[in-house]
UniProtKB/TrEMBL annotation:
This is Uncharacterized protein.
Length: 137
């Protein structure tokens, strides 16, 4: 393999990851991965796997990964929303220029309800932010 392998491997799952310690220092020079913990990003929980006790180094590496992962996920959330804005623009163009009456009949109610719901949430949250600014001024 090119390069040196990391000491830890994080198998990402929906709410966090399974954490493995990577070992190549064995007589067969095989890659061995030993699960040491389960991580929950949402609540910050780190559970040692089985009857293990995690070292301070283990916990530090895991917490650093959790912080980095939360940043990656937050960036993806914003990127996904910006893609949604693009998609809404493309949908508008499609509805105006190419959609048939039958296609519009199929999607109009669902789109109108979703956009109405989104607009209500955005207006309320913007008002909350503006009211919060008034309190701090």
């Amino acid at each position: 393999m090119a390069g040196e392998l990391p000491d830890y491997y994080f198998r990402v799952r929906e709410n966090g990851a399974l954490v493995f310690r990577v070992d190549t220092e064995n007589p067969q020079r095989r890659i061995e991965m030993d699960q040491i913990a389960v991580v929950n990003i949402r609540n910050g929980e780190i559970k040692p796997h089985g009857d293990r006790t995690l070292s301070e180094v283990d916990v530090t590496v895991i917490r650093d990964w959790m912080q980095e992962r939360q940043g990656v996920l937050a960036g993806r959330d914003v990127d996904d929303i910006l893609r949604t804005v693009d998609h809404l623009n493309l949908t508008t163009q499609w509805a105006q220029s190419r959609a048939t009456n039958e296609q519009l009949e199929t999607v109009t109610d669902a789109l109108l309800l979703a956009m109405h719901d989104l607009r209500g949430v955005l207006v309320r949250r913007k008002a909350e932010r503006l009211m919060g600014q008034d309190k701090t001024d």
